[in-house]
Every structure is written in structure tokens, then in C-alpha cells.
Design brief:
By secondary structure, the protein is an alpha/beta fold. α1 (12-27) packs across α3. It has a 9-stranded mixed beta sheet, sandwiched between helices. It has 3 domains: 3-175, no CATH class; 187-197 and 246-461, Glycoside hydrolase/deacetylase (TIM Barrel, Alpha-Beta Barrel); 198-244. The protein contains 15 helices and 17 strands. A hairpin with a 3-residue loop joins β7 (101-107) and β8 (111-116).
Length: 462
């Protein structure tokens, strides 16, 4: 028997989108949506008397002030420990922040009312609603982690959407014990933005002489100078695998050992000069690399250039450039998705661009300055267009961590030792707890030293 879900007659498309996301994509159970006159969501089961009603605070407010400051959550947030109301649910921490609504649940014999606005809170996180309201941006025009409510309220490192979903399911199972949801299993999704496939492929004699001079004079290392010259000369002769940044065989080998597939995202055009790399898809060494990746069964994807995040025509053009390059060189795998260069993003315009470019998925949404659950989830989900107020066909595959967010001096600056490992391991553990997808970005150019490789493999095996 299917679930019957009655929704209010305001924010109808938003209600339908978030209920479809939760019940179809996350739970995998049959349901029917009706509209009623009440100002809350009502869940019941066909031909049964038990009923669950749920606060709709966010949509009540947003209906009158869509994308306005007054529709954002009130800070500081209330905290609720479901155990206080005899709800035993497996959360990251025993108490959970309430984005919208109130704490507690009212129980009558056949009807329960949840004060927490689960649907509105999940919609807020998945749609990246706050990013369409607030004007905070960093030097690359990116919404920073420190401006988000998840950072301000201390839950960026926990998948709060998945916790809300688990809470909803636990309550529903208490009311309808025979309910069953689809099985999920934890998996790692390894992705690699190919910003700099080679360190020396396009370096002139003059440039290498300057670098060698720096090795001898500044770094006082003749050994380093000799190594640099040997690698540069080897690459100039066509032996690209001698290049320090050519770590692709290492990446694929380590993925294959663990039964995993890596995704390599290539830049197809240059809208911002050398910030978009210094290679083209016509370079013989790039063609050879893509063929090798394809032959070994790994994914080739799109890394949209720096200035595409607000340009749908350029986004589509770059997708076509990569698709044609793949076809021209006998690569038959489907071009399915990828990621924005520099994680540049604007909600919902960049969602629109990826759909317009014909991509199935995007894997951009993590913050550059800090890893964590930007969308509140480690499950992929269909996206919503907040401007046109409609669901899109695009799937977001949220990025949980980029290595440089943790290791980079301008970001968390944790280096490549135990501190960095613990940050990444804790995110992976939370993802595993909810049988999610641990989407990791690790650049090929950040696997040069033994220290970098050791951290990478430790995270894979954690």
C-alpha cells in the first residue's frame, strides 16, 4: 500500500519537489500527493488510521517572502534531542539543530505531530536557498563556507539532511512498522580535476633554466636541479610519464586495486587565460592520456572553465568540444558530467547551465575554503531552480572534500599528516554512517611527493 501525502496549497511545486526527492530518491517507496486546506503536511497510509503531521514553517514564510532575508533561518538555532521524546534514532550527535520549526513531537494514539519542519529544512539545504539570498562572495565570486548557516551553527561537518531523513524514517516506522525502504550501500567516488596534467610539457628552455637556477641559488640543491632537468628533458623527448604531475597511472592503479573507478575531468576551453590550464584537447599527450583512461575503464568528464559559471552558452560549447574530441579519438563512453573549475558557482544559474549543456550530473558543490556537507547530504539528488521555481533534470553529486581545502595554506592549512587525515576520515565516517557516496576530489598534481601519496592512500583505506 502506498503513502498518501497531503500538502498545503502554497509553495506547491516546492512541496512536491522535496517530497518526491525524499520518498522516491531517498526512500524508494510508493506515494501519492494531494492538496488540502491545512497549513501543514500530513502523511498517512492507504486504508490505515495512523497519521503524521509535520510543521511547514519555512514554506509558510517563503510563500510571502521568496528569496528575501526574512525567509532565512533564525540564529542561533534551537537544538532537539529526539530521545527526550522517546525517539531513538542514529544521528551523528544525539542532538540535532532545528533549521526551521521547533523541537519536540506531540503524540496522540493515532496522530503524531512533528514540530520540526523537516521538508522545509531539507529543501533549504538541497536547493542552496541561502546562497540565492545572501551576497557574500570571496575573491573568486564564490559563496564562502563561513557565510553559511551550517558553518555558523557548527554542522558543516555532519550530513544534516541525511540525519533529518533518518529521523523521519524512524518516526514513520514507529507508526507503520511494515514499511520498507530501498537498500543503500556506502561507496567512494574518486574524482580528479585535470588542471595541470604536466609540469614540464610546455616549459621552454629559458623557463627551465630559471627554475634550475632557483634550485641551486635559493634552494641550494644541486640534486633537485639535476632531477628537474632530467624530468624536463625526458618530457621534451615525449616520455610524458616522467613528468612529476603525470600521476594518472598511480591513481588508476590504486583505484583498480580497490575495485573503484576514477573520474578525470578535463578542461575543454580557456575563458580566463592560463588560469584554465595550458593544454588543449588536441595535444597528442592529452589524446593519449584520455585514450588510456578510457581503455582502463575509468570515466572522462568535463571541467568547465573559470568563467563559465554564469555563461550557459559557453558551458554548452565546452561540453560539445569535449564530446567531439572523445568521438574523434574513438572514445565511446558517454559524457555524463563533471565539475566547475575553481568550484565557481552561483545558485541556481550554474545548475541551469549544466542542464542546458546536456549533462546528467554535476559534482561541484563543496566549499573551496572548507570541506564538508555544503548541501547537507552525501546522497546524490535532483536539483531545484529557485528562480524559475521548478525542478531540473540535473542530478547533483555533492562533493564532500577537496584535498586542497584541507591541506592548502590559504584554507585549513592542515598539511599532509595526521591532522589532515583526521579531518578527511571524520567526513568519510559520517558518510559511511548513512550509506552515502564519499565524493573526493584529489588533483593529479597533488600526488607528487611520498607524503601526498601516503595521505591519499590512507584516506582511501580509512
Amino acid at each position: 500500500m502506498k503513502m498518501i501525502i497531503d500538502i498545503p496549497k502554497f509553495c506547491i511545486l516546492e512541496h512536491k519537489y522535496i517530497i518526491n526527492t525524499i520518498f522516491k530518491y531517498f526512500f524508494g517507496i510508493e506515494f501519492e500527493i494531494n492538496i488540502h486546506e491545512k497549513e501543514y503536511v500530513q502523511i498517512r497510509k492507504e486504508r490505515e488510521l495512523n497519521m503524521l503531521t509535520i510543521n511547514s514553517q519555512f514554506f509558510i514564510t517563503a510563500d510571502k517572502s521568496w528569496l528575501k532575508l526574512e525567509s532565512l533561518p533564525t540564529l542561533p538555532m534551537n537544538i532537539w534531542d529526539p530521545k527526550d521524546d522517546d525517539i531513538i534514532v542514529d544521528l551523528v550527535n544525539s542532538a540535532i539543530p532545528i533549521i526551521y520549526g521547533n523541537k519536540g513531537i506531540k503524540k496522540n494514539e493515532k496522530q503524531w505531530h512533528l514540530n520540526l519542519d523537516i521538508f522545509g529544512s531539507i529543501f533549504f539545504m538541497l536547493s542552496r536557498y541561502e546562497e540565492a539570498v545572501l551576497s557574500d562572495r570571496d575573491q573568486h565570486d564564490r559563496f564562502p563556507a563561513i557565510a553559511s548557516v551550517s558553518y555558523k551553527e557548527g554542522f558543516l561537518n555532519r550530513p544534516i539532511v541525511d540525519e533529518y531523513v533518518e529521523l523521519l524514517w524512524t518516526i514513520m516506522k514507529m507508526l507503520w512498522p511494515d514499511l520498507e525502504r530501498k537498500k543503500r550501500s556506502f561507496k567512494m567516488i574518486l574524482t580528479h580535476d585535470v588542471d595541470a596534467p604536466f609540469q614540464y610539457a610546455n616549459v621552454s628552455s629559458f623557463q627551465i633554466a630559471k627554475s634550475i637556477g632557483g634550485d641551486i641559488i635559493k634552494r641550494r640543491s644541486i640534486k633537485l636541479a639535476q632531477k628537474r632537468y632530467y624530468q624536463w628533458r625526458s618530457v621534451r623527448k615525449g616520455n610524458y610519464e616522467k613528468d612529476p604531475y603525470y600521476t594518472f597511472n598511480f591513481i588508476m592503479q590504486e583505484s583498480e586495486k580497490r575495485g573503484l573507478k576514477s573520474a578525470f575531468y578535463f578542461i575543454a576551453d580557456h575563458t580566463a587565460g592560463t588560469i584554465d590550464g595550458i593544454y588543449t584537447l588536441n595535444d597528442p599527450e592529452i589524446i593519449s592520456l584520455m585514450k588510456t583512461i578510457d581503455a582502463r575503464g575509468h570515466e572522462i568528464g568535463l571541467h568547465l572553465s573559470y568563467n563559465t559559471y554564469l555563461d550557459k552558452e559557453q558551458s554548452k560549447k565546452e561540453a560539445q568540444i569535449l564530446y567531439k574530441a572523445m568521438q574523434k579519438n574513438g572514445i565511446k563512453q558517454k559524457l555524463r558530467g563533471g565539475r566547475q573549475h575553481y568550484l565557481r558557482w552561483k545558485t541556481p544559474e550554474t545548475f541551469q547551465n549544466w542542464e542546458y549543456a546536456g549533462m546528467e550530473y554535476d559534482a561541484t558543490l563543496s566549499y573551496a575554503d572548507m570541506p564538508g556537507y555544503r548541501c547537507g547530504t552525501c546522497w546524490e539528488f535532483p536539483v531545484y531552480d529557485l528562480i524559475n521555481r521548478k525542478p531540473l533534470n540535473l542530478i547533483e553529486r555533492p562533493l564532500i572534500a577537496m584535498e586542497y581545502s584541507v591541506t592548502g595554506e590559504e584554507y585549513m592549512n592542515k598539511g599532509y599528516g595526521e591532522e589532515a587525515f583526521q579531518v578527511l576520515k571524520s567526513l568519510k565516517d559520517a558518510c559511511r554512517k548513512y550509506n552515502g557516496d564519499f565524493v573526493l576530489l584529489w588533483h593529479n598534481s597533488e600526488l607528487v611527493t611520498e607524503e601526498q601519496k601516503r595521505l591519499y592512500l590512507s584516506v582511501l583505506d580509512a
